[in-house]
Write a structure and sequence with these properties.
Layout lengths: L14 E5 L4 H12 L3 E6 L2 H13 L3 E6 L5 H15 L4 E4 L14 H28 L4 E6 L14 H19 L4 E8 L5 H9 L1 H9 L9 H12 L10 E4 L6
Parallel strand pairs: 1-2, 1-4, 2-3, 4-5, 5-6, 6-7
InterPro entries: KR_dom (IPR057326), NAD(P)-bd_dom_sf (IPR036291), Sc_DH/Rdtase_CS (IPR020904), SDR_fam (IPR002347)
Pfam families: adh_short_C2
Keywords: NAD, Oxidoreductase
Length: 258
């Protein structure tokens, strides 16, 4: 029998950048990654939230640093990656999780809401991929990147405005990046959460409680995911145990898209 307690964590010895780490899936993923042995660089706009999370990770024996900035600003994203490399000498993995949502029919969406969703969810992922891949290539190749897409990037859904369009774009970016960078050993995948118990879901519940209950009732497992369940999936994709997996979009949705 294998002594699983003595096995190293999935991410032992790896330095991993988490973008969008201050709450929800990003924060719980930081906890998961640290527990699996990663050194984590936590990036988001809220420095206070990042400091609290980094302290928590350190108190449980993990190694964490923070860098505050806006995923939609190229100079900030460059800094996220540069500080990861400066702190630990290299970047082995990245989880691009920053995202925003908005509710409503397409004809109800204001132009400023369209721009905000596209800037964070699409431009932000592109900026992150660009800088992370450049750094990994400078290291000689190798590494793993996971983006947060959504089941909204795999199918249409009423009442979610341009959010599904943005997540379809994340799926496209993920697949193109996998093709572009596979020859130098960089793997790029995405998780596609369904209903997940985050502040975003609670906001949707306040706006349209019946829609949320219908969505949960349609999940074969009859429950939303927890943020840590999404983080566990991302940790596996980032790890060497997924060494032949690239360009894949993994639903974490309790069977909703089955």
């Amino acid at each position: 029998m294998t002594d699983t307690a003595s096995r190293p964590g999935l991410l032992a010895g790896k330095s991993v950048l988490i973008v969008g780490a201050s709450a929800g899936i990003g924060a719980d993923s930081a906890r998961v990654f640290a527990r699996e042995g990663a050194r984590v660089m936590l990036a988001a706009r809220s420095r206070d939230a990042l400091e609290r999370l980094a302290d928590e990770v350190r108190q449980t024996g993990g190694e964490a640093e923070i860098v505050a900035g806006d995923v939609g600003v190229a100079a900030d994203v460059e800094r996220f990656v540069a500080e990861t490399v400066a702190r630990w000498g290299r970047i082995d993995g990245a989880f691009n999780n920053a995202g925003v949502n908005q509710i409503g029919r397409l004809d109800e969406i204001a132009e400023e809401d369209f721009d905000r969703v596209m800037t964070v969810n699409v431009k932000g992922v592109w900026l992150c991929l660009r800088e992370q891949v450049r750094a990994m290539r400078r290291q000689g190749g190798g590494g793993s990147i996971v983006n947060t897409a959504s089941i909204g990037g795999l199918r249409g859904s009423t009442g979610l405005g341009v959010y599904p369009a943005a997540k379809h774009a994340v799926v496209g970016l993920t697949r193109v990046a996998a093709h572009d960078n596979g020859p130098v050993g960089i793997r790029v995948n995405a998780v596609a959460p369904g209903a997940t118990a985050t502040p975003m879901l609670e906001k949707w519940r306040l706006d349209d409680p019946e829609a949320v209950e219908r969505r949960i009732a349609a999940i074969p497992l009859r429950k939303p995911a927890t943020p840590s369940e999404v983080g566990e999936t991302a940790a596996w994709l980032l790890s060497d145990r997924a060494s032949q997996i690239s360009g894949v979009i993994v639903p974490v949705d309790g069977g909703f898209t089955a």
